[in-house]
Design brief:
This protein has 171 residues and is an alpha+beta fold. The chain is built from three helices and three strands; from the N terminus they run ααββαβ.
Length: 171
């Protein structure tokens, strides 16, 4: 009878350290991909939100312009119409932070296709075809979305600029 039997370590016991090492290698990559997806989702959400805000603001501008002949209505191009357009856009933006300075009109020189300009000067001209009942209402919104993933923010400069334009036509 043998009193001392030497047993080999089980395969399960030896693989425990290997699984921990694999987990340590995969976890940072998984978290980075998760954070990139989160940032991408925030940018897409901001784009969707400001697009809806610009549509609502141009709709209000068209309704204000169409109602200009009714008694008690704001005259075309007046400060109360500009305020109504800005308030319509600001009332619609859940989860995206911006103020009234990001909501701009158009100077009339671009013909309604300014898209996302590199720099946009503050412009309250939401009626670029003229203040006497212009046919178009143009609303531009430009927002900077900060990137929270450290590695990606260093690559892309720390933020994405998201912008949209909505043109409404008075009929």
């Amino acid at each position: 009878m043998r009193l001392f039997v030497q047993r080999r370590p089980s395969r399960r016991r030896r693989s425990r350290g290997q699984a921990l090492l694999e987990f340590a290698f995969v976890l940072p990559i998984f978290l980075l991909i998760l954070m990139i997806l989160l940032d991408f989702g925030r940018v897409v959400y901001a784009q969707y939100t400001i697009t809806q805000d610009a549509r609502e603001a141009s709709r209000v501008g068209v309704a204000q312009d169409a109602a200009a002949d009714t008694p008690g209505a704001c005259p075309v191009g007046s400060a109360c119409k500009i305020a109504a357009i800005r308030l319509a856009a600001l009332a619609m933006h859940p989860g995206v932070t911006y103020g009234g300075t990001e909501i701009r009109g158009e100077d009339g020189s671009s013909g309604g296709n300014s898209g996302c300009p590199a720099t946009v000067s503050p412009n309250d001209n939401f009626y670029p075809d003229g203040t006497d009942g212009g046919d178009r209402v143009v609303v531009n919104i430009q927002v900077v979305v900060p990137i929270i993933t450290p590695i990606i923010s260093n690559v892309v400069g720390g933020a994405f600029t998201v912008c949209t334009q909505s043109v409404g036509y008075v009929q």
